[in-house]
Amino acid sequence: MSPGTPTDVRVRRFAVRGDLDVALAERLRTAATDGASSAIMLAGGTTPGPAFGLLAERPPRAAPGLHILYSDERQVPSTSDASNYHLSVPFLEALALPAAQVLRVRTELPLEAAAQAYEERLQGLLGEKLPVRLGLLGLGADGHTASLFSSADLTAARGRLAIPVQRPDGRAAVSVTPDWLARVEQILFIVAGGDKRAALARLAARDPTLVAWRAVERCARVEVWADAAAAPVA
Fold first, then answer.
1. Tens digits of residue pLDDT in 208-231
2. Cβ contact 174:115 at 8 Å
3. Can you tell me the distance from the alpha carbon of 62 to that of 79, in angstroms, rounded to the nearest whole number?
4. With the CA atoms of 28, 34, 38 and 43 taken in that order, what torsion angle do they form, in degrees rounded to the nearest 10?
5. Which end of the chain has fewer CB atoms within 10 angstroms, the N or the C?
6. Domain spanning 10-227 has what CATH number?
7. Which tens digits make up the pLDDT trace of 81-108?
8. Which residues contact 169 (CB under 8 A, 6 or more apart)?
9. Which of 94, 134, 138 is nearest to 220 (CA)?
């Protein structure tokens, strides 16, 4: 899992939002069933939710060594509607993985301890040389990704795999870092909604002032799947 440098950011546009959901469900199905021990990183937010639901309707037969991890997690109970883990439960139930293979951020711990515990689990994956084949990310209208919102967050992330973050909305969170993202074989941004259009244009242009681009600029492969509201179909 060595860092690389992408030459461009490919944007795949979907004229109908439902087509994006179906394509994402199939991409996750492929990643989950490829037969090799590997990991998938799930994004936060509600955008992947419909794809999780589609997978729950037709559960994939997960590869025995599959692990699931998260790009970030708000410091809320795991049963909260604001929890990224909770939003992914339909997918997790469809996969029927052993609990040890789901790297949930332990939000029942104090924030600093939760970040440290998550970093240790990520370090464990590196130690096992388990490849992270696919990593989903969201994109905020303000240009953030995961729970990395500012240059200060990126500075705090140097040399770390996971960090505690104070989000602009007042919530605390644990986020993966650019050092971790650089080890993911393919980064796939899932973007929906017209409020993301300007941020997506900046990401596609590799704007060096955009936090989301700075977070993934060392990744070997970066792709965006977007609905027509976020990236109008020509």
1. 999 999 999 999 999 999 999 999
2. yes
3. 24
4. 0
5. C
6. 3.40.50.1360
7. 999 999 999 999 999 999 999 999 999 9
8. none
9. 134
